[in-house]
Amino acid sequence: MKVRWVILGGFFLGLLFPLSEGKAETLTLDSLASQLQTPEAIQKFMGKHFVYVEDQTLFGQDEYWQSPEEMLERKQGDCEDYALFAEAILKKNGYRTFIFSVYWEDDAHTVAVFEKEGKWGIFDLDDLRYLKGDSIEDLGKAIKHDWSYLGIMRKDGNTGIINRKFQGQKAIASKISLALPSTI
Description:
The chain has helices at 29-35, 39-49, 55-59, 68-74, 79-92, 136-143, 168-173, 176-179, and strands spanning 3-8, 11-18, 51-52, 76-77, 96-104, 107-116, 119-124, 127-130, 149-156, 159-166. It is α+β, with helices and mostly antiparallel strands and 184 residues long. The protein has a single domain, classed as C8orf32 fold (Roll). The protein has a six-stranded antiparallel sheet. Strands 1-2 form a two-stranded antiparallel sheet. The chain has a two-stranded parallel sheet with strand order 3-4. Residues 1-23 have low confidence and may be disordered.
C-alpha cells in the first residue's frame, strides 16, 4: 500500500492516507536486499530505522544475539544485532562478509566487516567506514585501539561464538583475507 504523509502548516499530524487498495507490503530481508544493494544504502536504512538499545533493557539479559529478521521486526538492538543485520543484507547482495568482535578488559564490541573493490569496510552500528590496512591488527585498532584479543564470530542460537581468536603477534601477522574461514 502506498501512503502519503500529510503535513499542514509545518506541523506533522501523523496522518496516513492510502493511495491504493490492497495489503501493506511486509519487509523481508530479501525485499530489503533488492532495495539496499550498496553498503551506503544499508547504512542509511539502519540509521533511519534502527535504535540502539542494550540487551539488558530489551531482553533482561546481558547478551542476546537477535536474528536479522528479529532486528528488522523490533527495529531495536545493540552492536551485534546491527552487525548481523548488515551482514545478512550484504551477503544477499554477494559481498564477502563476516562478523568480528573486539575484546578488552571487561567489555566487547561487534561489527560487520565486508570486502568491496579490494578494500575492507566496517559497519559499526549504523556507521560505515573503510579500513586503512589489511591485517587483523589493523581491523582491531580501527574499532578499539587498546584491544586484548579479537575474534571472527558466528551466531549460535541467541549467542555469539568465537570461530577464530587472534592475540598479539598472530593478529599482527594475519592478513584479513587469509584469516577468514573458507565458508564466508
